[in-house]
Amino acid sequence: MISNNQFKAKFENFHNKSTNTQIVTRFIHASDIHLGSHQYRNEFRSDDFIRAFQEILELAIKHYVNFIILGGDVFTSLEMLPGNLTKIVDILRDFKEFTNGSILIIAIEGNHDIRKFSRGIRFERRGQSWLKLLNSLGLIILLDADLEAPQEEIFEPYNFDINKGGKIQIKNIVIYGTRYLGEQPISFLSNIRKAIIKKSELFNILLQHFGIEGQMDNVPGIKLEYIQPLRHRIDYLALGHFHKQFILEDWIYNPGSSEAVCSMDNSYKRGVFLVEISRRFDRFVKKVEIIQLVNRKYLWETIYINFEMRNKHEIEKFIIDKLKSSVRYLNYDFHPSTPQMPILYLILKGIEPSKLCRINEKDLRIKICEILPIVDVRIYQKFVKSLKTLDNYILT
Known about the structure:
Distance between the termini: 63 Å
CATH superfamily of the largest domain: Metallo-dependent phosphatases
Shape: elongated
Number of helices: 8
Helix content: 10-25%
Order of helices and strands: EHEHEHEEEHEHEEEEEEHEHEH
Structural class: alpha/beta
Largest sheet: 6 strands, mixed
Number of domains: 2
């Protein structure tokens, strides 16, 4: 039986050996992949998240990295369609087979990884997650620490026989990691700091899932001052949780989500970090490259309706005709599976339609997707009730 490995077609002559002897190691830092997301209940959007994950693995092969670190929220919840889980397992098995296990995937659990539903209760006490399943299959390395253990036992070395541990050493790099510790894990930071040993010949990475206050508007996070004590023991604080990319003080790194999970994410800089660590004059030097992934395109369109319509069909025709004109540059030959076919965010403003003309968003969405090269539509009705406020409203 001939193996149909998904990576062979793109990388025929892969050998994971660096030609630069000065480089200690090279790795990819990604986070918030949200596998299993079934955004807008659209199967093509569901595949977008899996495709982004596969692109990360392909980047790892292309750049001959030694490992990949994933800062949590690898999955969007415990709710998962069987077909999607099968795709993910197959991709990981092909990746491991093709690279002969030479590129390790090291992850921690984020808050979404332990949620029963995308917006629901957490199963932290029951210890369930898809990451634990992948870890048990030997497809990833899942790190976690026992923060209640004695200081020297908090981060036990990862044991491949029992698939368990809080740290792993790859060459001169030591990666420490814990599961999601809540929005304000300040009480745990002291134990984490004390348990991490800093040696001049080792480069320390700490993998965590929390945000930093001030990096996203109106979203809680930890004050930067509370993290500063870690700096003397950590060379690279690898974060996940915030979908917006940021780098702070050349030692705190958050790559952002790999695909837009909501409309707000489209305005954020997101992607992955390709990190190269070299050793020069008895010290480590970091080189961090930001890589933008190939994501689904999106469009924002606003249509003003400032006169009364006679019926629902008339208002739908008016909206679709307006859209045909504004998106006439789009390629109608694209298949919905390709990220070049965009998601449309449609804002409707103007006079509120009468009861006879009331817009059924589901019907309108289906018609737009049938007529235009749009993979999905989100409709926002921002109508006003009277002409008195219309002029002011249009200007907002």
